[in-house]
Amino acid sequence: MEHRKLNPKAAHIFVEQESANISPDDEAKILEDIPHKTRALAAKVATGHLSLRRLLKQIKLLTNMIRANDFSLAWKSKAIGLAGLAYFILPTDFVPDFIPFVGYIDDGAVIAAVLRTLAHELERYADFKKKA
Predict the structure, then answer these.
(1) Interatomic CA distance for residues 78 and 62, integer angstroms
(2) Per the domain annotation, does 56 fall within a domain?
(3) Is residue 65 part of a domain?
(4) Which of the chain's termini has less CB crowding within 10 Å, N or C?
(5) pTM score, two decimals?
(6) For the chain, what is the domain count?
(7) Using 50, 70 and 90 to split pLDDT, how confident is the model at 7?
(8) Distance of alpha carbon 103 from alpha carbon 113, whole angstroms
(9) Which residue has the higher pLDDT, 76 or 40?
(10) How far apart are CA 78 and CA 23, in angstroms?
C-alpha cells in the first residue's frame, strides 16, 4: 500500500481553501464531533506516542479558543480553525484514520498548518486565559 504524505505547504493551502467553505452553521456540528474523535484517539495512545498526545493537546487548545465566547476571534480565523478540525474528524481523509498511527500523520499536518496560521491568535488566547 502506498502511503501518501500531505506536506506542510499542501496542508496550509488545503486549510486556506477549505476555510472558505466553512459557514457559521458548521461550527456547532464540528465542535460537537471533536470530543468523540479525541476520546477515540486518546484511548489508542494512552500508553505512549508523544506526538499523538501533543496533537490531542493542540486540538484541545484550538477547540477551546474557538468555543470561547468571551474571546474576540475574527470569523476568518475561526473558519480556518474549524476547517482543520473538520479535517481531523473525517475518518476517510487523505490517509484514512483506520491505518494505525499512520492515519493521523495527515491530520497532524493539517492541524500544524492551522496552528501556524493562527499562531498570533493562539498567543492572544493564551494571554487572555492567563488574565482571566
Answers:
(1) 9
(2) yes
(3) yes
(4) N
(5) 0.71
(6) 1
(7) low
(8) 17
(9) 76
(10) 10
Q: What is the pLDDT of residues 79-120, one digit of tens each?
A: 999 999 998 888 777 667 666 666 777 888 888 899 999 999
- Calpha distance 53→105 (Å, rounded): 13
Per the structure block, which three cell numbers stand in for 49? Answer: 506516542
What is the 3 state secondary structure string of the chain? CCCCCCCHHHHHHHHHHHHCCCCHHHHHHHHHHHHHHHHHHHHHCCCCCHHHHHHHHHHHHHHHHHHCCCCCCCHHHHHHHHHHHHHHHCCCCCCCCCCCCHHHHHHHHHHHHHHHHCHHHHHHHHHHHHHC
pLDDT digit string, tens, across residues 65-81: 999 999 999 999 999 99
The domain in which residue 97 lies consists of 36-131
Cell digits for 85? 478540525
